[in-house]
Design brief:
By secondary structure, the protein is of the alpha/beta class. It folds into two domains: 203 residues, Rossmann fold (3-Layer(aba) Sandwich); 167 residues, Rossmann fold, CATH 3.40.50. The strands form five sheets. Strands 3-2-1-4-5 form a five-stranded mixed beta sheet, with helices on both faces. Strands 7-8-6-11 form a four-stranded parallel beta sheet, with helices on both faces. Strands 9-10 form a two-stranded antiparallel ribbon. About 1% of the residues have low confidence.
Length: 419
Amino acid sequence: MSKANLFYAQSGGVTSVINASACGVIETARLNKDKIGKVYAGLNGIVGALNEDLIDTSKETSKTIAALRSTPAGAFGSCRYKLKSYTENKREYARLMEVFQAHNIRYFLYNGGGDSQDTANKIAQHSLEKGFPITCIGVPKTVDNDLPITDNCPGFGSVAKYVAVSIREAGLDVASMCASSTKVFVMEVMGRHAGWIAGAAGLASEEAGDAPHIILFPEIAFNKEMFLKKVKSSVKRFGYCAIVVSEGVQNKDGTFLADAGGVDAFGHVQLGGVAPFVANMIKDELGYKYHWAVSDYLQRSARHIASATDVEQAYAVGRAAVQFALKGKNAVMPTIVRGSGKKYSWKIGEAKLSDIANIEKIMPRRYISRDGFSITEEAREYFFPLIQGEDYPEYKNGIPQYARLKKQLEKKKLKQWAD
C-alpha cells in the first residue's frame, strides 16, 4: 500500500512568518519520508482542496523550501472561506473527502486562526463518520494574537515589533515638526476585538513623553470627552500627541467607530478607516493640524523587521504539527507554553481544536492602564520577549530576496468542482 500523503493549507489573513510554519511542515515531512508520501499544498487554502488544485511541493528544491522561512505572506495562497456545518452544506464535505481519497491524503494540516481551527475540527469529525479518517492538526497563526490557550500566536510577535518601531520613529518625526506644524499623528493598527497589536505599540514608550501618548483599545469603550481631554493635555505637555488606534475601537453601545457596512466571508463586520475618523474629530474639536496612517498590510508583511522569536516559534509549530500527526494525534493544535522563570523560555504544548475554534482571547484588563489609554508593566513583561531578536532575510542589491515557488499542480483525477 502506498504511503499516506499530507495536505497543508494556509488560511485567512497572512503574516510575515506563516511561511516559516510551512517550512517547518515540509522539512519535517521530508525527514519522515518513510511514513509520509507527498506533501501537497492547497492553492489558495481549503479552496485548493475543493478545486483539486494541489501543489506538489516535492517539485520544489530544498533551497527553495528553506527560503520560505524568511519569506512573508502566504506562499501557496490563502483564502477567507469558512466551511459551514455538515447539515448546511453536505456537498463541500463530500467533495473534500472525494479529493482526499483520490489522492490518498490522510493528514490535513490547516495553518490559520480560530475559524481555520474550526474548519480542521469539522473535517476531523466528518472523516471519522465517513470511515476514511483524516488526521487533522491545526497550525496556529494570527497577527491578532487572539487564539485561546496558547500563550501567543505565531505572526503576532513580528507585528508587535513593527508597530512599536513604527510609532517610535513616527513619533520622533512629529516631535521634530510640532513647534510650527503637525501636532497630532494617528496610526491605525489591526485588531477587530482584541487590542494586542495596539497594546504592543506601547513598548515604544520608554520614558515620559515618548510616543505613543494614547492607545485606543477595543476592550475599552471609547469616551470622546476623556479622549479629547487627553489629547489636549499631551499637546500642552509634550508639544504633540501620537496616538495608536485599533481598528476595532467601539462606542459604549458596542458599535464600531469605523463600521464600513457589510461583512466579510467569515461573517465579520468590515471596518473602515478609524484613523481618519479620529484625526478629523480632533481637528473639528481642538483645531490641531494632523497626519494619520493606516498600517494595514504593511504591519503583517514586514518580514524585514520580523522578530527572531516569532520566526523560531512559527517554524516550531509547523514541525510539531507533523510530529503530532505521525503520533496519531487528531483534532489538536500545537500551542506555545511560556516558562515560569524570570528568564523567558517556551516550549510546545497542545490543545484540542474544539477548545480553540471560534473563541477570541482579548487583552486582560490588568494589561491596560487605569485610564484606559496605555499599557501596564505586566503587559510589558508579556510583550517584550515576543519581539526579541532580528532574523533578516537575504538581501541582494538592497532588496530582500524571497522564495519563488514553481507551484506545480498535481494532475487532477476528478471532475471539476462546481461551487
